[in-house]
Amino acid sequence: MAVIEVKNITGEKVSEVEMPDSIFNVEPKKSVLHEVVCMQLAARRSGTASVKRRSDVKGSTAKLFRQKGTGRARRGDIKSPTLRGGGVVFGPDPRSYKPKVHKKIRRLALKMALSAKLKEDMLIVLDAFVLDEIKTKSVVSVIETLKLENPLIIIDGKNDELELSSRNIPGVKVLRVEGLNVYDILKHKNLVLLEASIKNIEGRLAA
Hints:
Layout: E1 2-7, E2 13-19, H1 21-24, H2 30-43, H3 103-119, E3 123-126, H4 136-146, E4 151-155, H5 160-166, E5 173-176, H6 182-187, E6 190-194, H7 195-205
Parallel strand pairs: 1-3, 3-6, 4-5, 4-6
Antiparallel strand pairs: 1-2
Helix pairs in contact: 4-5
């Protein structure tokens, strides 16, 4: 079981914490991580594009003119796809792009992503991240002090001061434990965990 330092927002060591091997010591597999990341990105697609078919267009069903004798093409009703304002052929329908990935695979991929950050020494544990007020400058100061690059900060619960103060900083993202996901872990260079969030992550991934 790995033991790493717990720091405060000034960068000083305050204690140590044990990182459970079942979550933070899992050998990463590119195929598993790739499958889950593709699932997440596909699930973000709206899938709401839609058209009106011939039967959906409002209009008369009467034949526009007689079949023979006019010298014109044979024509049905005004909702024909070949007429302006008519129905659309082979257009898109609302659908879900989210592929099915087994829950065990998703959980395993999350463990692999967390393990990779610890193995690469890109994981930092803080005892707390408390701000007196909503102020972007305060978060920037902490990030510079800790020498964080493109950090993903995981908090154990609601923290309006931190969440609102960080939302306008490019490359910085704050997530609650329930929102922790493979794509964001891999996308951000540094992973910052609040000490209290480790138990929550352990409970979420217990299996």
